[in-house]
Amino acid sequence: MRGAVLYAPGDVRVEQRQDPRIEHPTDAVIRLAATCVCGSDLWPYRGVEPVNKPSPMGHEYVGVVEEVGGDVRLVKPGQFVVGSFFASDNTCEICRAGYQSSCVHREPVGALGAQAERLRVPLADGTLVATPEAPPEDLVPGLLAASDVLGTGWFGAVAAEVGPGRTVAVVGDGAVGLLGVLAARQLGAERIIAMSRHADRQKLALHYGATDIVTERGDEGVARIKDLTDGLGAHSVVEAVGTQESMMQAIRATRPGGHVGYVGVAHGVELPGTELFYSHVHLHGGPAPVRRFLPELIDLILERRIDPGLVFDLELPLDQAAEGYRAMDERRAVKTLLRP
Ligand SMILES: [Zn+2]
C-alpha cells in the first residue's frame, strides 16, 4: 500500500509500505476513507522534534473496517468507523474515568502511520466508534476532524470548564483553536474571544461562534483580554499552541479561580512556580481523551448541528502529502485533508 513517511525535517515521501495485517486478536484493519496532516506533525517536520529514522506519519483516520481479529466483538467488517490517536481498551479504570488517552494499555496510532491507504488499529473494540450506516460523502471531513482536532478542541473547552454564562478566550487559531471556539459555543459560553491575526481564520472563528477577535499576542494580548473582561480575565481559557509564550498568555488571561484547558502539545514550556502560586488559576489538559467525546461528536456531525470539516481548507490525494505538509508549514493552509 501507499503511505507517507518522514525521512528528515522537510522530507515527506509517499512510498510503498507493507500492508497492515491483524497482529493481535484485538486488532482491526481499516481501509481509510480520509486522513490528514496534524499541526503536531509539523513539530518533527520542522525539526523541533528529532527524526531519528524514517517514520510512518499520521494519526487521524476514518474508514471502513476490512478485517477484525478473533477477539473483536463490537466492531464488524463493513462498518464505517472513527478512531483516535491513542488506541485504548475503554474498559480499564482510567478509561472508565474518561481518560482513554492515558489507558493502561494505550498504544500510539501515530507510530503505525495513518497517512496511508490502510491502517491496523489495536484494541479495536475500545478504540473505534462505528457510525450507524455509511455517512454521506460531505460529512466525511467532519468525522475525520472528530478523530483529533475536534475532540482535542472539545477537551480543551471541557478542561477549561466552559459553560453557560462564561467568558472564554482561545489562544491559537489553528484547527484545534478554531474547533475550541466551536466547542465553547456548543457548551453554552456567553462570550468567546478568539486570538488570531489571520483574516481567514478570524472569519472561521466568527462563523464558529466567536464574539470578539483579539489580534495582539503576549502581554498585549493579555491586556486586551483584561480590557474586555472588566480587568478580571476570562473564566475559561483554551490553550491550543504549546509554546512558553502561548501557555503564559493563557494563564495570565485567566481570572483568579478560572480554568485553563491546555491541549497544545507542550514544547519547552516551563511554568514559574511563584507566579502560578499567586494566580489562583486551575490548569488541566494534556493529550485529549478524544474517545470519551466521540459518540456525542459523531451524533452532532451526523445531525448536521456542527460542521467541523470546514477547518480543512486544502484537499489533496495522498500521493501529494509532501505539498500538504508544505502548505501547512508555510501557513498557506489551516489543515490538509488527504484522500488515499
Ligand atoms: Zn483503558
UniProtKB/TrEMBL annotation:
One of its GO terms (molecular function) is oxidoreductase activity. Keywords: Metal-binding, Oxidoreductase, Zinc. Belongs to the zinc-containing alcohol dehydrogenase family. Residues 175-290 form the Alcohol dehydrogenase-like C-terminal domain. This is Zinc-dependent alcohol dehydrogenase family protein. Its cofactor is Zn(2+). It comes from the Bacteria. Signal peptide: none annotated. The keyword GTP-binding does not apply. It comes from Dactylosporangium aurantiacum. Residues 25-124 form the Alcohol dehydrogenase-like N-terminal domain. It holds the Pfam family ADH_N. InterPro entries: ADH-like_C (IPR013149), ADH-like_N (IPR013154), ADH_Zn_CS (IPR002328), GroES-like_sf (IPR011032), NAD(P)-bd_dom_sf (IPR036291). The keyword Repeat does not apply.
